[in-house]
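Protocol step 4 of 5: obtain the predicted structure for the target chain.
Materials: sequence only (see below). No template structures provided, no constraints applied. The aim of this step is simply to have a reference model before the mutagenesis design in step 5. Sequence pasted as it appears in the construct record:
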Amino acid sequence: MGTQNNFESRVSVFNDALQALQSNNESRKIIALCGMAGVGKTTMMEQLMQAVKDSGTFDWVIKVVIGENNDPKSLQQAIAEYIGERLDETTVHARADRLRKMFGEKSQQGQKKNLVIMDDIWKEVDLIKVGLSPLPNGFKLLFTSRFEDVCHNMGVQVVFRVRVLSDTEATTFFFKTVGPFPSDGDDDKRQRTGEAIVKKCGGLPIAIVTIAITLRGKIVKAWEKALRRLKRDDLEDLKSITNSIFKMSYENLEKDEDKAIFLLSGLFPDDFNIRTEDLLRYGWGLSIFKDDETFVTTRSDVEICVENLIHANLLTKSDENGCVKMHDLVRAFVLSNFTEVKQASIANLDNLSAKRLAKDPYERILLKCAGMSGFPSDTNYTNLSLLILMDGYELSKFPENMAKIMKKLEVVSYENMGIPVLPKTFEHSTKLRTLCLRSCSLTGCHRRLGS
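Step 4 output (structure tokens):
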């Protein structure tokens, strides 16, 4: 999206937040960046993180993404992995004590300075339960969140508000992203139409950049068509703005394979590092690339799809090698606007989520299983073709007739599962094409693999 401090309206916010991070003032130990989704909080956070790294303000900088899932065990594990430590303790309380001890050692009685960044907080996180409170000397916390009240409830002392762009900034950003006009004599029309389009984007950077990329190099009639659609939808709120723009970007994808990989990417958890290798394996299992005869050609096709989606601003590059990311607004659009592939991505299985799974015959389900001991038995599995289970440290029970009630199942994936007890009926599954196990114990399962 470009650097935040290229926008005049954000220079003071960036500088004030940076000063708060660099300050030794005890009243600025916990700070937050707040603003609506898609406004650029995470981008500003990443630039602040780079600035304090470059200046050597902190000896350690630790970043974790919260999103929908504020399960303390998962958060503790993410923090420990980021600093290269192991958490062998099994209870939340013991793991919190262990983290506090780690942080105390890294602080060295305040001689070392440390920053913990918690990105995209949706719900209140119990910092004591996690092990991030009380903070030793030299520690600071930086949050990003849409919800200012959540930050205040977590003890934030200073909130910096990231607002939408001014009209001038938004217009400049749009035309800079679009790039040079084609030499067809329609510059004036494009300018007027572009300015009208920018007004419909409401100063939201993600909306501006997405539609600008869609119109790059297009004839003026494509610009006028985009404006007509934006006007017809009478966009007034964030969701309708982004949905309309993402829909246009999706429909402008030329290949069915690009669309299929885009929809598949929306199944992963919020702000997840989506491995291109997973898109390959799941895409192969779901027969997305029908003309490919080998894994090698499919791998090449997946890489092309991912690159096309990045160019369309529907996926973004990740700091993790071999991974991409999907913005949470794009992901919400995928999960709520497509009926041709019915997908459910569930971070915490509550009563409402369980009712959804029981009522609707989903084709693809991703379920984070933290705290679950048994697999939901009331779910309608009749159309299920892909099942991804994550973080099931205590999950041990599956329906005995699982494969029988999942006759269409083609892909099964376990990740961070304590002991992935494979149902015996999978031995006789005729549809299953892909079985993925990552960071799982294979105790008691190896005899069935390859049967």
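Step 4 remarks: The longest helix spans residues 295-311. Residues 1-5 have pLDDT under 50 and may be disordered.
Proceed to step 5.
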